[in-house]
Amino acid sequence: MATEATNGAGETNGAAAEKTVTFTSLKPQLFVESSKASDAVAFYKAAFGAEEVNRISHPKRKADQELPLLLSAEIKLGSSSILISDLSDDSTALVKTVGTGLVFCLETEDIEAAIDKAVKAGAVAEGEITEGEGACCGGRVGMVKDPYGIVWLICTPAKKCANVDA
Amino acid sequence: MATEATNGAGETNGAAAEKTVTFTSLKPQLFVESSKASDAVAFYKAAFGAEEVNRISHPKRKADQELPLLLSAEIKLGSSSILISDLSDDSTALVKTVGTGLVFCLETEDIEAAIDKAVKAGAVAEGEITEGEGACCGGRVGMVKDPYGIVWLICTPAKKCANVDA
After folding, report:
1. Origin, by domain of life (chains A, B) (predicted)?
2. Which of A47, A159, B90, B139 is 20 to 30 Å apart from B103, CA to CA?
3. Is the pLDDT of residue A12 over 90?
4. Do A78 and B23 touch (CB under 8 A)?
5. B80-86 and B23-32 as β-strands: parallel, antiparallel, unpaired?
6. How is A18-46 classified by DSSP, letter by letter?
7. Do B23 and A79 touch (CB under 8 A)?
């Protein structure tokens, strides 16, 4: 598996038909045991002076359940952002192949093209593109695993679903 | 272990004597099996259109050994940077507690104060502060593991050792 193209091929001489994929942001996303995400945010504030810039509760857990799950909180450390999320049933499926719960979330308008390109380069697509709660901020999300064991979530840009909690 | 302060304590009412710690950057750093780091950089270029912005060879491996190890290559994806490094004997020791080889590198001028603050918040210091080859770009580096299993390298800012390969 994944033996296709890690030799740098296809970078400058790719087919003319290949789509350009633009990523609007890259954010590491940490999934923690439900419902420790709030504690984790507090810890990163205390330990590293992180600043919380966004917090989105799980839309399905607001009214009828005791434990409101944190879909994602965004914290800033310097000029970088990290997303912290409670593991839900959906996200557990999404990240069950990941040892530490640490993945990368790449935001783009064209999830399909991004996944295609990554798979052509040697990544392995994991599962289908899903809508909703699994990751990032509740938009559409697909997943690839790279030859180095890292899982990449290819997600709808955050601005498109920033008011999922509204 | 690590049961101290994940409850958000000590954030606004900390002792007046506590030093302010400033981080100049946060970069995820991926350690891969030696010497696959170059392949990994090529893969991330092909898969995600990453741009290589810096490459530092291992200073000790230049003349007298067959396999030049990549101490770290910095790639840009959107506005974010990721460091890719070959595992060396030193870095294997540094990251042996990490499942995926993925850690965070936090750059600061005051490594000791940063580690102190993180440990007070509930992180666990791992090993001593070391000089050299283990991580980042060859400056001083310390390591803490947080209560969520993530390893943080607290490093000298990159600008201070950018010409280690010169």
Report:
1. Eukaryota
2. A159
3. no
4. yes
5. parallel
6. PPP--EEEEEEEEEESTT-HHHHHHHHHH
7. no
More confident residue, A159 or B105: B105
B 58-117 near A (Cβ less than 8 A): 77-80, 82, 98-102, 104, 106, 114, 117
Query: Does B10 contact chain A (CB < 8 Å)?
Result: yes
pLDDT tens-digit series, residues A119-165: 999 999 988 888 865 555 567 889 999 998 888 989 888 654 444 44
Does A80 contact B80 at a Cβ distance shorter than 8 Å?
Answer: yes
Q: Are A73 and A92 in contact (CB under 8 A)?
A: no
Q: Would you call A47 an interface residue with chain B, using a CB distance cutoff of 8 Å?
A: yes
A121 Cβ under 8 Å from any chain B Cβ: yes
Q: Is the pLDDT of residue A117 over 50?
A: yes
Rounded Cα distance, B103 and B97, in Å: 10
Summarised one tens digit per residue, pLDDT across range B23-61 is 988 999 998 888 889 999 999 999 999 999 999 887 666
Out of A21, A36, A49, the one facing B49 most closely (by C-beta) is: A21
User: Residues B55-64: contacts with CB within 8 Å, 24+ apart?
Assistant: B55/B165, B56/B137, B56/B138, B56/B162, B56/B164, B56/B165, B57/B165, B58/B86, B58/B88, B58/B133, B59/B133, B59/B138, B59/B164, B59/B165, B60/B133
Cβ neighbours for B75, distance < 8 A, ≥ 6 positions apart: B41, B44, B45, B50, B51, B52, B53, B81, B82, B84
Contact at CB, B82 and A114, closer than 8 angstroms = no
> CB distance from B6 to chain A under 8 Å?
yes
Specify the length of chain A in residues. Answer: 166
